[in-house]
């Protein structure tokens, strides 16, 4: 799941403007993958980001998931206020705690 998210994030970072990537994709975090049900859950830190990402990027993320796993994947978006913190690099999280 984390390998996919790194792959997906890297591709989206190349496809989007830096502002779009930082605003919409970087705050997301993968939270669950169920291989038996072919579902991937991705968390957004607030309802606004969740709704926007779902409407604007769910198709692209689903396509990338299908290509990565070689099977159709249902991408579900969930609300988790801590999502942005999980996707931050370790150094940034440590700096934020100081």
UniProtKB/TrEMBL annotation:
InterPro entries: DnaA_N_dom (IPR024633), DnaA_N_sf (IPR038454). Pfam families: DnaA_N. Gene3D superfamilies: 3.30.300.180. Residues 3-66 form the DnaA N-terminal domain. It comes from the Bacteria. This is Chromosomal replication initiator protein DnaA. It comes from Burkholderia territorii. The lineage of its organism: Bacteria, Pseudomonadati, Pseudomonadota, Betaproteobacteria, Burkholderiales.
């Amino acid at each position: 799941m984390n390998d996919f998210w790194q792959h997906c994030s890297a591709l989206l970072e190349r496809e989007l403007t830096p502002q779009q990537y930082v605003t919409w994709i970087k705050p997301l975090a993968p939270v669950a993958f169920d291989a038996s049900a072919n579902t991937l859950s991705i968390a957004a830190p607030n309802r606004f980001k969740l709704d926007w990402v779902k409407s604007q990027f769910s198709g692209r993320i689903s396509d990338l998931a299908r290509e990565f796993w070689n099977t159709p994947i249902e991408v579900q978006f969930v609300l988790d206020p801590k999502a942005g913190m999980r996707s931050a690099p370790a150094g940034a999280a440590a700096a934020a705690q100081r």
